[in-house]
Automatic annotation (TrEMBL):
Keywords: Membrane, Transmembrane, Transmembrane helix. The lineage of its organism: Bacteria, Pseudomonadati, Bacteroidota, Cytophagia, Cytophagales. This is Glycosyltransferase RgtA/B/C/D-like domain-containing protein. It comes from the Bacteria. The chain crosses the membrane at residues 75-94, 101-121, 157-187, 193-210, 259-277, 283-299, 306-325, 331-350.
Length: 474
């Protein structure tokens, strides 16, 4: 356990900044500044600069709180996930102790080690994504469902429902906790608890629409949802959601870290399904409900959503493994031992890799800021919002890519696009070259409207040759 904590602490220092860290952080910054969720760096795309109705709203609100407390930086917003992961660990401890899900106290400690060794968990422990929030609130909802079934207490069902609704307020994929919670209560024939849970969860979900105050805004919200660049036309067909059930294995085996957890679940079900069904029926069917519901409603099989039900997969696996070591034959114990060796070996290896993967973006951004006059209009990679968001009128290169991806603009020339949007400086980096639809050699040379200015680390800077005033007059 101490080794894992040490690896985690080492990994936090100059952990690479992810695209989503910057994307959501800018939304949180704007919410704190204007009181509504918008994104000025995506200006020109679906009126996002006015209001972003498709945001992961409770996630963004949490980020704005941390920015208010600690200032705008990647470290401040990444701390949101630390807070909610620690909250999830508290829920684990309380649930494990109160419901005696493990036969020995030491197994609870082993479970915490098992969960905290998972590379996928440690990666998102320090990433500003909504999944850690949903995982914590979702597990809290399940814990209170169990309490309500144990005591027939309506208050527990109401709070459980509201937490499930908050999951959806955080990210619409969180509705799986509303569905799974209702199904488990229905399965137990607790119809009064179902009604209370459902009402409270809908109340929590209704918060998602807090920023829609007129018919016009409702229309804009529909347009943004319907034309979301992350979606395709296939996402709006019934066949898409039916066939996605067949593809869920892609999420479960996305990469080595996810595969190790999935293998543990499969071994647990293979060796101990009857035990889990008899002794932990609610946990078993709640977990399976989450997996099926996410497979049906999510827009794709991206691995980050695995984190929503990973706590339940982990706890089921350890409960089953404890039973195997206590009751089963030697050959079955060897199977479990082999899966655990693979699990810990692979995840420790991945954690060591993660711990020593470093990135030093902020000093580079400061060097760039020193040569580009403040308050000018720039086109830059999204990462440049850290910590230059207040210094420039910034538009991200991602807008150009998305508009072309959706075929929403006539010209695919990047420099023409920058001139049209009156960008005085362009900052580009090689990893974005495919998105800008030009050979890298041509991009860094510029054209008649933009000339090469400087190269700082991995960034190339171009300066406009035209007069902004003349461009405005045209």
């Amino acid at each position: 356990m101490a080794f894992q904590v040490l690896l985690l602490m080492v990994s936090l220092y100059h952990r690479p900044i992810y695209f989503d860290d910057a994307w959501f952080a800018e939304q949180a910054f704007q919410f704190l500044k204007f009181g509504e969720i918008r994104t000025e760096v995506f200006q020109g795309l679906l009126y996002y600069e006015n209001k972003l109705h498709t945001a992961h709203k409770f996630h963004v609100i949490n980020g704005s709180v941390f920015i208010a407390l600690f200032g705008f930086s990647p470290y401040a917003v990444k701390a949101v996930s630390i807070f909610y992961t620690l909250l999830l660990l508290c829920f684990f401890y309380v649930y494990g102790r109160q419901f005696r899900v493990f036969q020995y106290s030491i197994t609870l400690l082993f479970f915490l080690l098992f969960y905290l060794t998972q590379n996928f968990v440690l990666e998102y422990f320090y990433a500003y994504r909504p999944e850690p929030i949903i995982a914590a609130l979702g597990f809290g909802s399940f814990y209170l469902i169990e309490k309500s079934l144990q005591s027939r207490n309506l208050s527990y069902a109401a709070i459980a429902g509201f937490l499930a609704g908050l999951c959806a307020f955080t990210h619409l994929n969180g509705v799986i906790f509303m569905g799974a919670g209702g199904l488990i209560l229905l399965f137990n024939k607790e119809f009064k608890l179902v009604l209370i849970f459902s009402f409270a969860s809908i109340l929590g979900l209704s918060l998602y629409f807090f920023d829609i105050g007129s018919q016009e805004e409702l229309l804009y919200a529909y347009k943004q949802f319907r034309n979301d660049p992350a979606l395709s036309e296939d996402n709006f067909t019934a066949l898409h959601y039916i066939t996605k059930l067949v593809d869920e294995h892609k999420r479960l085996f996305w990469d080595y870290a996810e595969a190790t957890m999935t293998i543990c679940l499969l071994v647990a079900l293979l060796t101990s399904f009857r035990f889990l069904h008899d002794k932990h029926k609610n946990l078993l069917y709640y977990t399976l409900s989450l997996i099926v519901l996410l497979a049906v409603i999510s827009r794709n099989t991206s691995s980050q959503y695995y984190l929503l039900y990973m706590p339940f997969v982990a706890i089921l696996s350890v409960i089953a493994f404890e039973e195997v070591y206590l009751q089963k034959k030697a050959i079955v114990r060897w199977l479990v031992t082999a899966s655990l060796i693979f699990y810990f070996g692979m995840n420790i290896y991945l954690n060591i890799q993660m711990a020593f993967a470093k990135e030093y973006l902020l000093p580079t951004h400061q060097k760039i800021s020193a040569i580009i006059p403040h308050q000018t209009k720039i086109m830059a990679p999204l990462y440049f919002v850290f910590n230059e968001i207040d210094n420039y009128d910034m538009q991200t290169t991602e807008v150009f890519f998305l508009l072309n991806k959706k075929k929403w603009q006539s010209s695919s020339n990047f420099f023409d696009f920058c001139k049209k949007h009156k960008r005085e400086y362009i900052i580009i980096e090689a990893r974005d070259k495919d998105k800008l639809l030009m050979p890298w050699e041509e991009l860094i040379k510029g054209d008649k409207n933009y000339q090469y200015l400087a190269t700082i680390d991995k960034y190339t800077i171009l300066k406009a040759t035209f007069s902004l005033q003349a461009s405005t007059n045209k």
